[in-house]
Amino acid sequence: MMHGKMKYLTYLPLLFLLGACTTLEDVYSGLKKSTYIVQGEEEHLLNHNRCPDALLKPELSIFTMHPANTKLDPENISNKNYMSRAYIEENAGLSCSFEDETVTVDLTLNFRGELGKKGKLLVNDDPLYTYPYFVAITDRSGDITLKEYFIASLHYPSEGNEATYTETVRQIIPLANHSKARDIAVVAGFQLTENQLKYNRNLLKAMQIEQAQQDAAEAAKAMTTAKPEANTNAIPVPSAEKAKQQNEPIKITN
Q: Is the pLDDT of residue 85 over 90?
């Protein structure tokens, strides 16, 4: 597993950081209510006592890299001719510490990658792929107050098609009232285009259907292979030795 160096977010007004990103406006249009209380099926919320929450959106946790000359079709999720695909795992870690008027948040992200059919030019290649991701800070109303971009680099070995990478991002946030730390949320995800976002949503739906079918098949298999329960009303048939013992007289005196 590869580990990256500690990366730092610089706390600056959002005006200088968002740029032309439209993906966040789309994805987080529903987060105008507090991320402090959002706990639907669509997101994974990690609570750490007084620390801010870490929020991972499944639709922003997948990055599929296609060949440069390929036009991405969001509906064609069955196409396996991609170069690589990376995931941000749900088991992210978050810790925090408090100083006089600040809270320092360390967010550890675990990346997992896999190569597609176009991932290697030669069988013994050991390619290095990079995936853009962001870390953002939101306030209680769900408004993004900080967003910065980073790169996750996954090096795939020549003898395999999978790779992992772990990176920790540190943010020092001004916070005079430490009890308000839970009003802050740390959001992470891959930086995606609109087409990539649509592709991920369709891919997640297909994954859910496939998982449901697998669960149903396993449940059906378990039912057909299960042994019938013993009939508790059946009259037990004693063995010959036990029957002999039961028929012997009981000794009650010395």
A: yes
Backbone angles phi, psi at 197, to 5 degrees: -65, -45
Q: How far apart are the first and last CA of the chain?
A: 76
Helices (H), the chain: 23-27, 194-225, 240-247
Among 147, 151, 142, 166, smallest CA distance to 53 is for 142
**Is residue 224 classed exposed, middle or buried when 0-12, 13-18 and 19+ CB atoms within 10 A define those classes?**
exposed
The domain ranges of the chain are 2-215
Q: Single out the residue of 107, 66, 113, 48 nearest to residue 85, CA to CA.
A: 113
Neighbours of 139 (CB within 10 A): 16
CA dihedral (15, 20, 23, 26) positive or negative:
positive
Provide the 3-class DSSP secondary structure of residue 130: strand
What are the structure tokens assigned to 46, written together?
Answer: 């990690």
* Amino acid identity at 75: E
217: phi then psi, degrees, rounded to nearest 5:
-65, -40
The tens digit of pLDDT for each residue in 179-198 reads 889 899 999 999 999 999 99
Q: Does residue 77 contact residue 199 with C-beta atoms inside 8 Å?
A: yes
Which helix (H) or strand (E) segment holds residue 159: the answer is none
- pTM of the full predicted structure? 0.70
CB 42 within 8 A of CB 165: no
